[in-house]
Please model this.
Amino acid sequence: MALKILSVVGARPNFMKVAAIYDAIKEFNQLSPREEVHHVLVHTGQHYDANMSDFFFNDLELPKPDLFLGVGSASHSEQTAKIMERFEGVLLNEKPRIVIVVGDVNSTVACALVTKKTWCSAGGGAESYIPSLAHVEAGLRSFDRTMPEEINRIVTDSVSDYLFTTEESANRNLAREGVAQERIHFVGNVMIDTLLRHRAKAKESTIVSDLQLSNGVGAKPFAILTLHRPSNVDDKETFSRMLEAFLEISSRMPIIFPAHPRTLKRIQEADLADYFVDHFMEGPEPWDSRVRIRLIPPLGYLDFLSLMSEAKVVLTDSGGIQEETTILGVPCITLRQSTERPVTLETGTNVLVGSDPQRIVNEFAKVSDGKMKRYSSPKYWDGNAAKRILKILFGDFCPERSIRTFPFDSGLKSTELSQS
Ligand code: UD1
Model:
């Protein structure tokens, strides 16, 4: 019988991570004499707008989710509770052997808790069991417990059976928290698997010329801004001070700002629209000296990857973008006080500046003067993380059919499969 694995997606940053796992399972099944892994994809519906969800399924060639829970937006408690309630029914019906959750969003923690509290009946007189829980991107810590994502990470890790990590700091954090070594697996970064896989396809995107940023042979210098953390956008004073810094930067080069729905709402509520031009409504020449911050809707995966690859600099408060820019070799100015991804500071292109306007402008000045940090690719961010995950899970659950004949072995040196 095929090994049944159920993966959960809910919010935008989850789609790229599960896409890598889905692709690895698909390839494994194709290379095997029969379907070895039966994969079920569940979408909680935490993100539901076309440009926050559907576009990603198209770009990443992910199949339609097998189950859609339609929870939508609500307060943290209400959203988490709704996901838990609906996911319990899914588990009881589907009876997977393994549940995979990724990242640190509310869908991650909600489904993790349900998985470890639900007994599935095996049928045929076999004993009931609790599915195994695998957390992909385990062990990251910002040490800022006011971030909802930090709470989600700590809780999810504390109940997971398999903790798949992306960087050495995560291995150390988990060891310090008392997690047994045999549960920690340093496999690399599934989001980077997806980036490397889609890089060539992203080159076909026309977004750079659509935004009038092309000079015929390449891209003119431009910056990208993404901002959605409550700590940056919920307080009008903090948000306006940062906008003053971005405005100053926009006099040096155009800033393209694909705005998250929560940020758009804050701009309207706080009456901050004067800082922006609606790129597509007003369509100004980007080199117009009166150009302000250029607001566009959230982009799909391939367009955003293409834009990021061509940018002179990225200003962001996202977690994943700190990692993607490190692999693309694009300077990243992170608008937060802390990062749960320290490897991007140590070996990558990332610098932390917080929300202080002077620090933002100073760091931008360094980058635009060509003072670029030296960088290198973090260990195991090589496109094989999802295959390593699958090899470990399949090896544990189907030892009789596994390791010796595992079809990925030629591409995966055994030394790459290290535990911390
Ligand atoms: C969530 C994640 C965050 C991640 C971000 C990426 C949590 C705790 N946070 O934050 O870690 O970086 O996704 O985008 O899970 N909205 C829409 N349409 C949508 C989705 C959201 O209009 O498709 C609006 C709603 O008004 C909603 C607000 O955005 O209330 C916030 O959405 P929510 O999913 O609660 O959190 P994010 O800020 O997106």
User: Anything to note?
Assistant: Confidence is low (pLDDT under 50) at residues 414-420.
